């Protein structure tokens, strides 16, 4: 299984200078919109983004809530809403699609950290 790790690629978003933190997948799940007091986070390409500004799309009961609190590199890159695609496995996925998703989230939302492989 191939996994994306944060790297210094051209698709990599600008780093946040302060307030960054690392989360593992289990920690990330706490930011899925169930607790409206917490920010909404998702991970794509090993980067963790605060998608709270998109609460009308990613919040509880909203169309893209499946991505909130999740590692979503594969699903976002192939346009899937399937639970089985919520991971960082990019085997067989177009690299430009992956880079495009990292770029999209990096330009639209604040990067708040990195995804750790283990808790």
Please provide a written account of the structure:
With 119 residues, the chain is an alpha+beta fold. The chain has a single domain, classed as Cytochrome b5-like heme/steroid binding domain (Flavocytochrome B2, Chain A, domain 1, Roll), CATH 3.10.120.10. The protein contains 4 helices and 4 strands; from the N terminus they run βαββαααβ. It has a 4-stranded mixed sheet.
| Global shape | globular
Helix % is 10-25%
CATH architecture level-2 label: Roll
Q: What is the third-level CATH name, the topology?
A: Flavocytochrome B2, Chain A, domain 1
Q: What characterizes the major β-sheet?
A: 4 strands, mixed
Low-confidence stretches: 1-10
SSE string: EHEEHHHE
**Can you count the helices?**
4
Name the assembly state: single chain
Alpha carbon gap, first and last residue: 19 Å
| Count of DSSP strands | 4
Strand order of the largest sheet: 1-4-3-2
CATH superfamily: Cytochrome b5-like heme/steroid binding domain
- The CATH class: Alpha Beta
* Beta-strand fraction estimate: 5-15%
Q: In angstroms, what is the radius of gyration?
A: 13 Å
Integer average pLDDT? 87
Structural class: alpha+beta
Pfam families: Cyt-b5 (PF00173)
InterPro entries: Cyt_B5-like_heme/steroid-bd (IPR001199), Cyt_B5-like_heme/steroid_sf (IPR036400), MAPR/NEUFC/NENF-like (IPR050577)
Family: Belongs to the cytochrome b5 family. MAPR subfamily.
Protein name: Cytochrome b5 heme-binding domain-containing protein
